[in-house]
């Protein structure tokens, strides 16, 4: 709520407005922090402090904000990996990871992949420089044991980065679990209104932070001051939004379980979900995304069409619910009827009623076909 706010000064605003500056007054030697707008900006500084406090309360991590989640992910990968290094990615992670995979391969980096579930990445760790974890994975919602993977990776000399987008720091704190980097797309739950693209990297290691900051300067993947300010403003409601969204996600998951046309409901917060045991040891909240499968593509499309409170749209973590048939993108190993549902902050009863009404309209007869 108060994360990253400056000390109170009489007649000053609580959260200073965005600073639009390409350069700053700079007579004499350039010793201060604010010299040129690609290097530093006071609006970023407030946001970086806020996110650092959330990622690592009491011992704030250094945080570097970026223009998008992919800019943050690329900054870690490309600032740390050199030709001849090996990196381990999940094979069921975010959609753009395969593009990064291709790019790293072209630079002479060996990219190995394994599934998130069952901590399968540990089997391909030998000699790697960096382990990339995404848990819960997107969109499959498998979970791996961060502590166990960190232990194994560190014993072999590998750094560990966790994509914490889905959980947010309120759901899970990768740095406290031993990871070297916590990385996220703040486009999703962190900002939560579907109107900003942003990303961040947090790390407890000043040398790693310097390398990531240097990469931002080299590539120039910097956030606009307006986006950074909107993000900081949105953080004031992060806990409210996230608590509501996570609670409704669990309610929705239970409701979907009761439906004959719905199979494969996944939500790490369901006590008998395959991810729950590991998730409950490292997560404090289980996120706002629920996934499930309808019998086929046509029924999934009709279900999405029939929803009134839910936009058929990609992305997740926003205050307005969205859902999509994930198979339309290709690339994810999911059935044609697979739906990724991002639970928003609507009235829970209204939202569940909307979902059940749209399922009812499919006219499922229980024999595997709609009539
Ligand atoms: C959306 C997303 C990204 C990419 O973030 P952008 O802000 O779209 O660049 C990375 N990882 C995960 C898990 C995501 O959901």
UniProtKB/TrEMBL annotation:
Belongs to the trans-sulfuration enzymes family. The keyword Plastid does not apply. InterPro entries: Cys/Met-Metab_PyrdxlP-dep_enz (IPR000277), PyrdxlP-dep_Trfase (IPR015424), PyrdxlP-dep_Trfase_major (IPR015421), PyrdxlP-dep_Trfase_small (IPR015422). It comes from Streptomyces tremellae. This is Cystathionine gamma-lyase. SUPFAM superfamilies: PLP-dependent transferases (SSF53383). Keywords: Pyridoxal phosphate. Its cofactor is pyridoxal 5'-phosphate. The keyword Oxidoreductase does not apply.
């Amino acid at each position: 709520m108060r994360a990253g706010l400056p000390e109170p000064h009489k007649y000053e605003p609580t959260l200073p407005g965005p600073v639009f500056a390409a350069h700053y007054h700079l007579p004499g030697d350039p010793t201060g922090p604010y010299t040129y707008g690609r290097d530093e900006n006071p609006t970023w500084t407030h946001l970086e402090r806020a996110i650092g406090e959330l990622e690592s309360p009491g011992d704030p991590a250094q945080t570097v904000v970026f223009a998008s989640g992919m800019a943050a992910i690329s900054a870690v990968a490309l600032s740390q990996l050199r030709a001849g290094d090996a990196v381990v990615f999940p094979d069921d992670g975010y959609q753009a990871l395969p593009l990064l995979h291709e790019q790293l391969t072209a630079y002479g980096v060996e990219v190995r992949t394994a599934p998130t579930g069952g901590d399968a990445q540990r089997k391909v760790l030998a000699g790697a420089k960096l382990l990339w974890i995404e848990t819960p994975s997107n969109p499959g919602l498998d979970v791996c044991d961060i502590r166990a993977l960190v232990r194994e990776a560190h014993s072999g000399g590998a750094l560990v980065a966790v994509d914490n987008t889905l959980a947010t720091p309120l759901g899970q704190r990768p740095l406290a679990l031993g990871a070297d980097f916590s990385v996220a797309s703040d486009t999703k739950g962190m900002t939560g209104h579907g109107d900003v693209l942003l990303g961040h990297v947090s790390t407890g290691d000043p040398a790693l932070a310097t390398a990531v900051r240097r990469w931002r300067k080299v590539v120039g993947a910097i956030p606009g001051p307006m986006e950074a300010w909107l993000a900081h403003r949105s953080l004031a409601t992060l806990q409210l939004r996230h608590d509501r969204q996570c609670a409704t996600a669990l309610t929705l998951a239970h409701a979907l379980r009761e439906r004959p046309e719905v199979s494969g409901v996944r939500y790490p917060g369901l006590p008998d979900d395959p991810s729950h045991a590991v998730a409950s040891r490292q997560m404090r909240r289980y996120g706002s995304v629920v996934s499930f499968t309808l019998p086929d593509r046509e029924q999934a499309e009709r279900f999405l069409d029939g929803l009134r409170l839910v936009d058929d749209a990609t992305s997740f973590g926003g205050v307005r619910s969205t859902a999509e048939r994930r198979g339309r993108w290709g690339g994810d190993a999911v059935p044609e009827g697979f739906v990724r549902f991002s639970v928003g902050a609507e009235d829970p009863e209204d939202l569940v009623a909307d979902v059940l009404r749209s399922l009812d309209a499919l006219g499922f007869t229980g024999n595997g076909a709609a009539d």
